[in-house]
User: What shape does this take?
Amino acid sequence: MLKVARYGPVTQIRGGRRLAGRILYQTAAYLVGDLLIDTGCAHTSSELCKLVRDRPLSGVAITHHHEDHVGGLEALQAERAVPAYAHPLALPRLLEPPRRLALYRRVVWGMPPPAQALPLPEELSAGPYRLRVIHTPGHAPDHVAFYEAREGWLFTGDLFISERVRYLRPNESVAAIAASLARLPASDDYTIFCGGGRVVEDGAEAVRRKVEYWRQLREQARALAAQGLSQREIATRLLGREGWLYLFTGGDVAKRHLVRSLLQWP
Ligand SMILES: [Zn+2]
Assistant: This one.
């Protein structure tokens, strides 16, 4: 199920699979000028095609290869024959998606069908808008953000998520995410459009608070590690017990992964 919201000239298309009356983890695509940023998951691909059917579309820009951002790409290209652009590291993953995906990811977002994309140029045209591409690895190696400097719009995929991220997957890196956040525009005046649907004004300030939150957590984690506590114990002490998310994802999304990565952050 998808919902459309307008933020000035930016159209947000947000949603996900509906199960037992509620939408599971939603993702957001954005229509900027005649460019679509991300395509949602496979479960909502036909709905996405219907939603953009009457709109001008010159291309699709992909923030990263995860199934909740590229699941609608193949269906969209079959209908509209528009070019898609992604980071060069994402291209083979789009062409040959993983054969196996954790059960929770298959249930929530579905397997993404193979899709073709071209390597991203440094800048993309989106009707009257220009989007600068910023490589922002950490959540995924092929992750990018898109920045419209004149309008002050920053499309961050899964880079920002929220100010207080308390969980991580094992292959995510706090150090890499923090380095990517430091690469975001120096301007103090931009709005963040998240791949999860959040729209955050005063984006630069929110980014500063996000990094500061992790910095404080790292200091506390280091102090507890020095006392001999295990990473699991540190996670419980600082963030509470692993909850239903840990169980639901089979331990893939966990507080202890965040603690491990915080302790590796130089
Ligand atoms: Zn992702």
